[in-house]
Amino acid sequence: MVTTQPTDGIEVAYERHGDGQPLICLHGGMAPQQYWNPVLPHFEEYSAVIPQRPGFGTCLDDQAETRADEVLNREAEYVRRLVDAVDGDPILFGHSFGALTAVESATDAPVDAVIAYEPAVLPDDYREEADLADRMAALIDDGDRHEAVKRYIEQVLHPDGIDDLDAWLAEWPVWPDCVDLAEEVVRMNRAVEQYQLPGRLGVDAPVLVLTGTNGPDFLRESARAVHDSLPRSRLVEFDGISHSGPGEAPALIASAVKTFLGNA
């Protein structure tokens, strides 16, 4: 683990694998750093940089007090510090909330390209009724942290329903350790619920927006909206792939990414 010296209270910690151009991999809401393990063998020509997001291991000193409307800005600033810490202009590769953070970071960071798999953006009509953060917070206040995290997993990972969630969780590698992240996930969800996609995102670097047909419909809709708001963007939709695309089908995703980077 590499750790930079704190600047303005921000300590940046990350793992680095291999040599080559830095490929900064930003995980999503409930995923640990290990989420990227299936992806790394497909990018051996790059130097994979995997940070711990604020609140997920290495954090800002005052992360627990960070308001929801500050979360995305603080995470984007964290990524910008990371961009400054690595040699050369990196590529940002983000999944879900990590994808939204990658796009926001690239508005003011020297990066070569951005890869965004289903950025955590809510369509306007969906966002206006979103209440996941409130429902999770109420369960946490009642002392039921496990149920709070289950509500997140149901809505984000299984929006079409699941027959036996407990059986699925029993096979999920990060369960139940991820319950420790409950408060951070509430803050993250509030940030997502408050985020409004601008008509134009000021990202100069080329961006590849990825989505899958087996993920939530609202995220596929948002992926198209993010694509439309970017000046230099390509949209690729994978048939039969879910919201967990990079971990679920790493070879397929990597092939699309490399084709894009070769053309960009």
TrEMBL record:
Coiled-coil segments on the chain, per record: none
Pfam families given in the database record: Abhydrolase_6
AB hydrolase-1 domain boundaries: 23-255
Gene3D superfamilies: alpha/beta hydrolase
Name of the protein this chain belongs to: Pimeloyl-ACP methyl ester carboxylesterase
